[in-house]
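Example 9 (inverse folding). The structure is encoded as follows.
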């Protein structure tokens, strides 16, 4: 259990760096320039402020959400031809929503030469990883959504490929999980639920998403933090139907899923959230963090973008610039707000390095909890 908690703490460090999505400020000086932020003098240069290390230049935007305003921008708009975003799940999944948000922002900001295509590859994650790493190798204009679920799924599905075998270009998104119960549950606080969980963990069945996914991982971390033997965990995977499962089947003591997944049911008064896995309180979410209750669980569900292996350095730089614009666009910020999610921007080599470390952590953790 100590190994499990140590690895969890390492992942929590990454989560602690997140911040709420900022609104575009008035005028931003060159030394602090961010793409699409407003600038003062056309032609002024912000050295090495681009996500790929290139310069940003103060220009009057000709397209996109900042059209007509003077903003920091790349010298040339990073246009992508034949944009096709591969989603390793259905369009209605969290991966699908993220992929569509990226495509919508690309279109809104004038970054795609034609209507973006969304290609779905649902099923075990070895399917999407094989398609990306084998069938799409070296092809331009092909982006692929990735995230915690795919990275974990690459191990549980015994995939021949890892996400890092492709070309990691940007981590962009983070959301947090929640522990929820029926509105009329006897549990009104996380402390009450934890007390019963410690007394008789085997009697408390938990429902969450895919085996090996972030919900399963969150539950395992909860058991570790409470010093409950993981062999006492009864976990049922019902991906995409966690709220409905809690409401329809009394055998589930509680459910684990994203905050956004539970939000409509909380608003309707049928479910209540007892705690969340964020490092700090989240605005408009009326539930404490687990860590504020001395339960050492801070977990983020992240998402990002990969390119096929053998993508050229120029191709990588082009996509990083485009995604930098997406990350700062109104369309994408509105999407994050709608999901109670946060910007989680980490481009290029930094994301590559982080992802490889994430894979090692998850592989070790899943071995510890018996998933491998």
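The amino acid assigned to each position is listed next.
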């Amino acid at each position: 259990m100590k190994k499990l908690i140590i690895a969890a703490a390492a992942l929590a460090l990454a989560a602690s760096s997140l911040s709420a999505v900022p609104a575009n400020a008035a005028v931003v000086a060159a030394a602090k320039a961010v793409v699409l932020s407003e600038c003062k003098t056309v032609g002024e240069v912000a050295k090495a402020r681009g996500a790929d290390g290139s310069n940003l230049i103060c220009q009057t935007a000709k397209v996109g959400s900042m059209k007509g305003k003077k903003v920091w921008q790349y010298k040339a708009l990073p246009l992508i031809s034949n944009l096709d975003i591969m989603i390793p799940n259905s369009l209605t999944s969290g991966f699908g929503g993220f992929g569509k948000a990226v495509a919508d922002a690309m279109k809104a900001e004038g970054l795609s030469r034609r209507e973006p295509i969304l290609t779905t590859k649902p099923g075990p994650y070895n399917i999407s990883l094989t398609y990306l790493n084998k069938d799409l190798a070296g092809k331009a204009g092909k982006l692929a959504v990735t995230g915690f679920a795919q990275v974990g799924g690459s191990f549980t599905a015994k995939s021949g490929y890892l996400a890092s075998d492709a070309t990691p270009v940007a981590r962009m998104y983070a959301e947090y999980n929640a522990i929820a119960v029926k509105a009329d549950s006897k549990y009104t606080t996380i402390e009450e639920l934890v007390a019963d969980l410690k007394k008789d963990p085997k009697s408390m069945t938990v429902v969450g998403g895919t085996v090996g996914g972030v919900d399963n991982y969150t539950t395992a971390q909860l058991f570790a933090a409470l010093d409950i033997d993981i062999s006492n965990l009864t976990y049922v995977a019902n991906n995409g139907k966690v709220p409905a499962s809690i409401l329809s089947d009394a055998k589930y003591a509680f459910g684990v899923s994203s905050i956004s997944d539970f939000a409509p049911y909380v608003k309707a008064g049928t479910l209540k959230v007892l705690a969340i896995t964020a490092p700090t309180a989240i605005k408009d979410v009326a539930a404490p963090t687990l860590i504020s209750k001395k339960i050492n669980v801070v977990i983020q569900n992240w998402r990002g973008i990969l390119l096929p292996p053998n993508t050229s350095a120029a191709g990588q730089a082009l996509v990083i610039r485009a995604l930098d614009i997406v990350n700062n666009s109104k369309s994408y910020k509105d999407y994050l707000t709608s999901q109670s999610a946060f910007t989680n921007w980490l481009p290029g080599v930094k994301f590559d390095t982080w992802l490889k470390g994430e894979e090692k952590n998850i592989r070790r953790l899943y071995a510890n909890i018996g998933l491998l």
